[in-house]
Design brief:
May play a role in anterograde transport of membrane proteins from the endoplasmic reticulum to the Golgi. Belongs to the BCAP29/BCAP31 family. One of its GO terms (cellular component) is endoplasmic reticulum membrane. The protein is an all-alpha fold. It has a domain of 149 residues. It is built from 5 helices and no strands. The longest helix is centred in the C-terminal third of the chain and has 147 residues. The mean pLDDT is 80.
Length: 233
């Protein structure tokens, strides 16, 4: 294996190890976000995109080169030469095996490189989503607490209004009883006034009759006295 393919193979092993570490279930996305927020990553962030696309281009070139080698040694001409000379047959199959091996190494390296970028992005997004959800949960808890407080205040206000209504109803009942009592007293007073007016009218009629009787008796007395005076003369 040449130096470049040895480097690609070690790069593939490193990608496999990194992806396995990123997929460990007991390491949460928040912890990975803390790891990704280290200063070294902030320092490397301006070069990260350039490095990422550069590795993609290198791996694509190596993949195309390996694919070309596979097409070269799997064609009809090398196979015809291999049939003529047994030594050439072994050499061609060795070259074809190396080309296929290099094709798989470069292809999987390119694939895992894209997967690793996507996994890191998803971990950051999940961490941000968890932080936002935690903030929303806190806001929702405070809103629920405020709603419960308002509900309790409303219940207390309703209870106070009911108590005031009961007190007002009791006062109104007392006032109604007092009004009825006063109305009864007023009716009794009016009856007494009517009775006194009737008695006064009766006394007036009696006094008028007595005056008339007095006048009649006075006239008779005068008449009798006049008659006695005439007899004396």
């Amino acid at each position: 294996m040449t130096l470049q393919w040895t480097a690609v193979a070690f790069f593939l092993y490193g990608e496999i190890a990194v992806n396995l570490i990123l997929c460990i279930p007991f390491i949460s996305a928040r912890r990975w976000r803390l790891v990704f927020s280290w200063r070294i990553w902030n320092w490397l962030s301006p070069y990260w995109n350039k490095c990422f696309f550069t590795m993609i281009m290198v791996l694509i070139v190596l993949f195309l080169d390996a694919f070309r080698e596979v097409q070269k040694y799997s064609g009809p001409e090398p196979m015809q030469d291999a049939k003529v000379n047994p030594n050439v047959y072994d050499h061609v199959h060795m070259k074809l095996f190396r080309a296929q091996r290099n094709l798989y190494i470069s292809g999987f390296s390119l694939f895992l490189w894209l997967i690793m970028r996507r996994v890191v992005t998803l971990l950051n997004q999940v961490a941000v989503t968890l932080e936002n959800s935690a903030g929303l949960q806190a806001q929702m808890d405070s809103a629920v607490k405020a709603a419960k407080q308002h509900q309790e205040d409303n219940l207390m206000l309703k209870q106070a209004l009911l108590d005031d209504e009961k007190a007002m109803s009791s006062k109104n009942q007392q006032l109604k009883l007092e009004v009825e009592k006063l109305a009864g007293q007023l009716r009794a007073a009016e009856a007494a006034v009517h009775k006194s007016h009737a008695e006064v009218d009766a006394m007036k009629r009696q006094a008028k009759g007595l005056a008339q009787e007095y006048d009649r008796l006075l006239r008779e007395h005068n008449q009798l006295q006049s008659a006695e005076d005439k007899k004396d003369q």
